[in-house]
Amino acid sequence: MIDALSLLISHGVILLAAWRLLPCADLDRDPPPQHPSASEPHADA
Description:
Number of strands: 0
Radius of gyration: 21 Å
Structural class: mainly alpha
Number of helices: 1
Distance between the termini: 60 Å
Order of helices and strands: H
Helix content: 40-55%
């Protein structure tokens, strides 16, 4: 019984967190890319 209860509580908390995160509008949007600075090496080198 304890094992089932602990699984129910832990999975319930995970589902609650996912349910609260789903309506967030910023999950589907990536921030605009930043311009590389002069100190960073180029990717094509």
